[in-house]
Amino acid sequence: MLKGISPVISPDLLYTLHVMGHGDEIVLADAHFPTESLNDNILRADGVKIQDLLMGILPLFEIDSYVDDPIVMMDAVPGDGLDSAVEERYLIPIKKFASNAPPITRIDRFAFYSRAKNAYAVVLTGELAKYGNILLKKGVTPV
């Protein structure tokens, strides 16, 4: 264990967050996400909720301030609905640790899959919320 780092941050996740560069993206995927077919750099956080991961990641991770959509979630498919409580839970750590970040952008399912294919890594979590996936774009760490 390291002082000041959440225990939900595995050594592999800590390393990944460290080596990611400005503009690289990481997906925190719900348990239903087709991770294996979309990305080769997969980290596991079985049983861990995405809100808890955000609480651990965001104190360590600068959100990109040079783009309009550094925080992205999947939008519902036509005929399906979103549970607003999911985004509200994610906004708690976002507002606490990335208060200057723009609002969360919603994109369609296949656009999200495309971003996940090109992401630096995908973290497969224990999140069970439908449309619970979130993508973070890494920014430049202030001096």
List keywords for this structure.
RbsD-like fold, 5 helices, globular, single chain, alpha/beta, 6-stranded mixed β-sheet, 17% strand, 143 residues
Description:
With 143 residues, the chain is α/β, with parallel strands linked by helices. The chain has one domain: RbsD-like fold (3-Layer(aba) Sandwich). Helix content is 31%, strand content 17%. It contains five helices and six strands, in the order H-E-H-E-H-E-H-E-H-E-E. The chain has helices spanning 11-19, 35-38, 50-57, 84-97, 109-118, and strands spanning 25-29, 42-45, 71-74, 105-107, 121-125, 134-137. It has a six-stranded mixed sheet with strand order 2-5-1-6-3-4. Strand 3 (71-74), helix 4 and strand 4 (105-107) form a beta-alpha-beta unit. Helix 3 runs parallel beside helix 4. The protein is globular.
Summarize the structure.
With 143 residues, the chain is α/β, with parallel strands linked by helices. It has one domain (11-137): RbsD-like fold (3-Layer(aba) Sandwich), CATH 3.40.1650. Helices cover 31% and strands 17% of the residues.
Distance between the termini: 26 Å
pLDDT averaged residue by residue: 96
Q: What string, H for helix and E for strand, traces the elements in order?
A: HEHEHEHEHEE
Named CATH architecture: 3-Layer(aba) Sandwich
Strand line-up of the largest beta sheet: 2-5-1-6-3-4
* CATH C-level name: Alpha Beta
Q: Unreliable stretches, pLDDT < 50, 5 or more residues?
A: none
| Number of separate strands | 6
Question: How many independent structural domains?
Answer: 1
Shape: globular
Which superfamily, in CATH terms, is the homologous superfamily? RbsD-like domain
